[in-house]
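Is fe (ii) ion placement plausible here? Inputs below.
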Amino acid sequence: MFDLIIRNANLADGRKGLDIAVKDGKIAAIETSIAAEAKEEIDATDRLVSPPFVDPHFHMDATLSLGLPRMNVSGTLLEGIALWGELRPIVTKEELVERALRYCDLAVTQGLLFIRSHVDTSDPRLVTAEALLEVKESVKPYIDLQLVAFPQDGYYRAKEGVTSLSRALDMGVDIVGGIPHFERTMEDGRASVEALCRIAADRGLPVDMHCDETDDPMSRHIETLAAETIRFGLQGRVAGSHLTSMHSMDNYYVSKLIPLMAEAGINVIPNPLINIMLQGRHDTYPKRRGMTRVRELMDAGLNVSFGHDCVMDPWYSMGSGDMLEVGHMAIHVAQMAGIEDKKKIFDALTVNSAKTLGLEGYGLEKGCNADFVVLQAVDTLEALRLKPNRLAVIKRGKVIARSAPRIGELFLDGRPSQIDGGLDYVPVRK
Ligand code: FE2
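Reply from A.M.:
I modeled the complex. Tokens:
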């Protein structure tokens, strides 16, 4: 007797009509027509069953603070940083915890069960770190939350940036962050990358830096990050977030840079929603897109995963906690509209980001953790097109969220949208 069987599941890798049996929180079998019984069954009715979404880049300390203490009038990155600088000294730990938990509730309903969040360490009060460490514990049964010590105002540029970052790591923050392009000079940026990689090597931690989030083609801190990764033996443990300057770099230089990044095993984290919104702001026309070179990086074998980055905060007034919205934008901005392209984009929201986070037991294979999302879509292509409801979200074999199916959608197979005795729907097209 199994604990749970999900029947008639289509998987992201193209396998169709499979039953997935769960025992003790792990996948015990994936086969066609499992004859055994289970305490609970879900008929996926040939819909997509995916491992949960993984967001490798978020700011949970700022989320849902839109309008506090005022709106971002210009809508630019720099006004967003200034605005956050106004809110940060007056925000309380309780407010931070309350907003973060509200976001986590939203994330669970979206099937987003793994999140890496940056935590601003610029204010020496470090209420941000205190709050998110508490949130990390509270949401543990549902969401695996990784925290990055992020010196938003500059590791060297902020008054107590150096000591605050170390104190946050001492408190239990998991990952070393950075923002070299925001330091006062290129040299300070270079030096910050070296110092932060040294800290990661000494403490045995991963690195995840906001790196070259600018349209300046001469912002080349990713080169230093890759070189220091190799020098300190951190291959595979380092992520470069944003990397938008690569969009504007000279092609010859990039032809040297990408192999260096591959040698260093850099995990690349573009943030399509935020990059298309915030970059290219100094351009008239033509305007740059401001996302890094996703196709070229993937083709070179680098691990690329997409982040949501912001939801209703000083930098971005939109967002929904839906990683499919992120993938939808990535398809457009990277112009990756082919069938194989879209499959790669879906992977960048799931298996690639799981690799970035170093997750163990992730995936739909026997022995993996029984964590799933049942989507109201037949496959990954339809999921990316419709951003459909998450009919069931399952963590370690237990259903932790359900959504009613939407009706009246343009499903390609023309079927009514039903699952688990959902709404009756009579298709208009006979
Ligand atoms: Fe960010």
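Short version: Residues 57, 59, 118, 210, 309 surround fe (ii) ion (CB under 6 Å).
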